[in-house]
Amino acid sequence: MGKRKIEKQFMGYLRADGTVGIRNHVLVLPSVICSSHTSRKIAQGIKGAVALYNEHGCGHIGRDYHRTLRTMVGMGTNPNVHSVLVVGLGCEQVIPSELAEVIGKSGKRVEVLVIQDEHGIRNTIRKGRQILRSLVEEASKAARVPVPADRLVVGTECGGSDAMSGVSANPSIGAAVDLIVGAGGKAILSETPEFIGAEHVLARRGAADNVGVEILRIVRAVEDLAISAGEDIRGAQPSPGNMTGGLTTIEEKSLGCIHKGGTREVNAAYDYAERVQCAGLSIMDTTGDDIRSVSGMVAGGAQIVLFSTGRGTPAGCAIAPVIKISSNSRAYENMRDCIDINAGTVVEGSETIELVGERIYDFMIKVASGRRTKSEILGQDDFAIDRLLPTI
User: Fold this and answer.
1) What CA–CA distance (Å, rounded) separates 124 from 131?
2) Cβ–Cβ under 8 Å, residues 38 and 44
């Protein structure tokens, strides 16, 4: 049997800054937790609009403030977002007008509402819905056009891993990543705590010495953070669910995790939510928490996420499709409403890793052109920002 044809293009939305979206959302972006409820009320029932529930935006200091701001800007400038309505309270640390100004530099239309300036929540919701309908009407005029696959930025994630994740689903994602990179696209390998014990393998794949050094540095930083807190990282890695699924050590989990990065060189290492510029495979320094990790990659420009699971997880994202790949057929059957692709066929011997990788790639191209994932159908709009410091 010959290899199937690998699609080299998809139907996407061209943006003013030269990026390409695979969705055409109008984003209601609360600048602070205090305006999150109002933001959701504004977006409620308006087709084409999505609202984040943002637990952050105030009480941050130093590097933590800059990380928070960078993540919020990244969500607003993600190519899947057509335009943005920033909703603030009026006394928060992340100033709504400044957030809107930075997002606006991407060429997107950005509007701002501040609850205190609008004399309360009811007025803000009423005015916000008027603005939002205008933005959605404008967005509806955008049309998909054929674009090459090299315009894709793909994040990779694993959650609820089991003993089969490193055998089937993760290597299959890695095979799909090799196809993405081979087509000239970008792929992101995340979850720094899940590199521990395998960091030397990743470091050897650095395209330049400084990349390998940076991989070793960020892993050491995670270990040092746990030690400074007087904690054993093995309390979270592997998690109780991972161990129930058959994983025994953090090294075993990590060696399985890094398979998602395929076999190509690692061309760059980025900070959390930093915009990914380099073609090919990159590392992003994220937490092992699925939602925070996915949010960081999407803020970094990923339009789509490949997410493996052995136990099953419903995690999603408000603005980027998340494709779920199960490591075993039992999880797939148990959570069919959450999982898009079954890689358990690798364990059963009915498919090779390469064939499942091709299936993942083909499905990803269909999703990039408009097909909805299970997480989108379920309305999974999860969002969270990784923290560095306590809220003051």
Assistant:
1) 10
2) no
